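Why do we care about 3D structure at all? Because function follows from shape, and shape follows, mostly, from sequence. That is the central idea of this module. The next example makes it concrete: a single protein chain, its amino acid sequence, and then its structure expressed as tokens.
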Amino acid sequence: MSNSDSFFNEVAEEVRRERLFRLFRRYGWIGAVLVALIVAGAAWNEWQKARDRAAAQAFGDAVLTALDAPDSAARAAALAALDVPAGSDEATALVALMIAGEAAGGDPAARAAALAALGPVAADESLAPRYRDLAILQRALLDDGADPAARRAALEPLTAQGRPYRSVVQEQLALLALSEGDTDTARNLFAALQDDPEAPQGLRQRAAQLIVVLGGMPAS
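And the structure:
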């Protein structure tokens, strides 16, 4: 390479360096802003995670405190008064289901609180079936003074194939028919339940026993 070529290369390199320096001075702040935004976004994300963890822990502690109340009515009232984290539909559903569990003892105040809490859960079609179907089932069990036709209409859709509590609901429909004196329907429902391979073994055995009580013959 000649001296003149070397000189021109050095000049060209210096020109490129000068242009790069000018571009950096003109637009370098953009990179600094991007870095600042990335750091701020990461910090904000970590803060949100810490806040959500703290809220979840506080909610869990509040649930445990509510469950330490001395009787079912007090526990139901404490659960109903919980401040459920905003946007947590599943937490709302779980609280309602726990309230319903406290109403199993038959306390009128707990029963009223349970029915009030279960209503929105049963009507919320955005919830997973395991929550919504259980809320519908528990409402039907607790509201035993309701019109039998209305209870049956609420329960029958839950017996569709693939629904999470299909077997339990079928047993409740059989018991509902039995309470109305419709022994034929009750016996048929128990027979179908006994033959259902997806039903729990204990439930199938109970169905077989009730078939005998109703004058039928259980499947062999």
